[in-house]
Amino acid sequence: MSSDQHPPRLDVDRILSDPGVRIVVCCGSGGVGKTTTAAALALRAAEQHGRRTVVLTIDPARRLAQSLGLTELDNTPRPVKGVGEGSDGSLHAMMLDMKRTFDEVVLAHTDPAKAAEIFANPFYQAMSSTFSGTQEYMAMEKLGHLHAQGEWDLIVVDTPPSRSALDFLDAPARLGRFLDGKMLRLLLAPARAGGRSVFGLVTASFGVFSRVVQKVLGAQLLTDLSGFVAALDSMFGGFRQRAEQTFQILQADETAFLVVATPEPDAIREASYFARRLGEERMPLAGLVVNRVHTVKVPGLTADASLSGAAGLDEAGEQVPTADALRIHAALAALADRERAVTAGFAAEFPHVPTVAVAAQPADVHDIDGLRMIGSAISRP
């Protein structure tokens, strides 16, 4: 596709107003306005389309709370005041709390005594707070829970920056590999055999295995891990089942993925990566949102023509503001040309993906009015 050809335009309002769309997932690299886009879309869905909407951010930055006029966000949906009054629409916002979500899952699927045993386990305490991949898996749990509640017409998900934004797609398979691994099954065997010590098995093969692992992990950590595995044994199947169910929801027509980028080489490369991954996973890619796009007031006046005109005025000895204005226009026109060329690379690879360009704003968005302005810009026909 050449730079003068255009992909189909993304009709955001059609997505936000469609009762069959229940989840919108915004993904993209860091610093492209993804959080602002997610909040603006959620706000527009509530105000313009009368939908009961919740926006869930997995990004721990405070930008979402500040722009929505909230002092803080946590694991519980918080109502955004002044939105949806007098209409059917409403807006709530929340931020994923990884450990609290894990705790809630344990409480929901075990008895109080078993939950207390799990919470006291040092390995659980570490895993629920810092273990790699736990955040993405808990995002799947929280999304699945919000979806199952049936309280919301639309759930807008603001994913973490960079490629980790799609790590939650790998959560079910990664969790399955972890739970079905040989080491974990060996650790679980003593507990299933009657609670004997993890080092108490008489088989020579496990004796060798336990000594090696003990040297690597240390006796106490291995004991903590064994206790954690034994305590969670009855929950493992539920973890896998719920994650796989949420994965299937993300593949369904009720979900719309929006890739967010800026017209810069790195951001567009990341956008292409996201689009390819979504295609491989059969996830419904609804379109591309390109933020901070620069335009000129006189598109017919090229950068070269502007510079030539400014040079002519200089040679004539004309000290007029027109020459400076022409140079400013030339710089902006050249920037707009570069941005179009960069974005055309995505369009050439994905010619059928609808796209919308959002003009660069004069200031950062930090309140509800700013979000309304962004929502209108994204949805402008």
Automatic annotation (TrEMBL):
Segments crossing the lipid bilayer: none
UniProt domain ArsA/GET3 Anion-transporting ATPase-like: residue ranges: 22-293
Gene3D superfamilies (alphabetical): P-loop containing nucleotide triphosphate hydrolases
Family annotation (InterPro entries): ArsA/GET3_ATPase-like (IPR025723), ATPase_ArsA/GET3 (IPR016300), P-loop_NTPase (IPR027417)
Taxonomy, superkingdom: Bacteria
Pfam families: ArsA_ATPase (PF02374)
Full protein name: ArsA/GET3 Anion-transporting ATPase-like domain-containing protein
